Amino acid sequence: MASFLSLLFFAVVFSVSLFLLRRSRYRRLRLPPGSLGLPFIGETLQLISAYKTENPEPFIDKRMNRYGPIFTTHVFGEPTVFSADPETNRFILLNEGKLFDCSYPGSISNLLGKHSLLLMKGSLHKRMHSLTMSFANSTIIKDHLLVDIDRLIRLNLDSWTDRVLLMEEAKKITFELTMKQLMSADPGEWTESLRKEYVMVIEGFFTLPLTFFSATYRRAIRARTKVAEALTLVVRERRNDDRPRSDMLGALMASGDNFSDEVIVDFMIALLVAGYETTSTIMTLAVKFLTETPLALAQLKEEHDQIRANKGHSEAAVEWCDYKSMAFTQCVVNETLRVANIISGIFRRTMTDINIKGYTIPKGWKVFASFRAVHMNPEHFKDARTFNPWRWQNNSEAANPGILYSPFGGGPRLCPGYELARVVLSVFLHRLITRFSWEPAEEDKLVFFPTTRTQKRYPIIVNRRERGPTRS
Ligand code: HEM
Ligand SMILES: *[C@@H]1O[C@H](CO)[C@@H](O)[C@H](O)[C@H]1NC(C)=O
Ligand SMILES: *[C@@H]1O[C@H](CO)[C@@H](O)[C@H](O)[C@H]1NC(C)=O
Ligand SMILES: *[C@@H]1O[C@H](CO)[C@@H](O)[C@H](O)[C@H]1NC(C)=O
Ligand SMILES: *[C@@H]1O[C@H](CO)[C@@H](O)[C@H](O)[C@H]1NC(C)=O
Questions:
Q1: For burial by CB atoms within 10 Å, which of 112, 207, 336, 398 has the most?
Q2: What mean pLDDT is reported for the chain?
Q3: 3-state DSSP assignment of residue 231
Q4: Which segments cross the bilayer (predicted)?
């Protein structure tokens, strides 16, 4: 016992002096101002407790007021520089692969798979990223994906009556769409059972930072194995099938890169993961923000009723020119992405000492570029914390896109799904608004800013709208 205690004592003395030594080295560099907090835990506890409140940026707000938009903290076991400065964020995004690279904890890598696009670096990343961009670019959406987006959304809305759990429905739609786009799988028993496993995988991403003690995480890893097995079977079948297919799996196999089954499966899982919570959350939050902003909802209704009226048939498919004519909808989409900030920012690691804005960030440090802190800053957006789609009408903020407004990131890791997500949300709003009126069910209110993962499902009561004289 005594020897255990003295061991403990030395360990503590040793690590505290190491901590102080490192701190004095950092003092010689001109680090961004801030506090490294306590040894080891740093300011992690403050970060976690801050996000339990409803203020969207409590942790960053407080430190920004004290130190300015670039500051040093210490979270999740590492010193980390936070940036709420638009130019610095841009610099970080554009220098991906040169001065910064992505960095995820090992627990996340295990869930994603080692060949995931999100973890790839260097020339392989470049190749895979451009392939992914070409699978979901506007030409492909227009010529192939739009029909299925519209059809699957309509199919799901057909069964809506009375009380609908909006978030659940949005997730179902998003999953079905991705399965269709990836491998032409139509919704059915197989996709539903895969989705059940897949939901457990997703749960695993939210167990940080207690991953290794977590039963949820272990279950997620098992579920990932099952999902990967099911997808591997699909890939194998496809290898023996010569019919050309116009889905992402077909394009991947036809690319001439000779990807292994494992690479292809990890690729598909990456797309499922990256598009799922993100797209379904903006679908839900757009409806929530509109419900709370009746003027915006009325204007949107007018836009979509007009489109339906011009088509003359209440069920006629949404075409690309319809999407392109949804001017106010695009304002609503932009504003939803700005206020909701599903991906609040991105973590990177410095590959070398970085000099920026008069500060030095040491090599090997973590940086966090916060998009939310910029989107929510009244210096950059007037009444920044209010949902106001009209602010996009004269395109004033869009005059400098990518600097102040970056819901999809930018640079070499720009989200390949940026157009797809916009189209899915627009078509969803079109079908929802032309078919239903709704009101939120009284209980279960979704918090305004989903700063932590919200378990809320946002139930609404829907009523079918009377069809107008255009019905044929
Ligand atoms: C509202 C919906 C979405 C938002 C807000 C969003 C946001 C983002 C952001 C900010 C990044 C950059 C991450 C980084 O720089 O480290 C990203 C990457 C990515 N997104 Fe999205 N995304 C959305 C929907 C989608 C969809 C529908 C797909 C499916 C095609 C998708 C696929 C990806 C992939 C594969 C990456 C990784 C790119 C890379 O690392 O090279 N996303 N997304
Ligand atoms: C989209 O990608 C396809 C290949 O998948 C390519 O032929 C087409 O030119 C691309 N369109 C745009 C607008 O980049
Ligand atoms: C494709 O990759 C497999 C292994 O992944 C290899 O055995 C095969 O020779 C490769 N084929 C070509 C044409 O490169
Ligand atoms: C929405 O934001 C994008 C930048 O992501 C911009 O290019 C586009 O013009 C904006 N749309 C409107 C209607 O302002
Ligand atoms: C947009 O511009 C028009 C005329 O140029 C003006 O009447 C309107 O108030 C402006 N809207 C916003 C939100 O600035």
A1: 336
A2: 86
A3: helix
A4: none
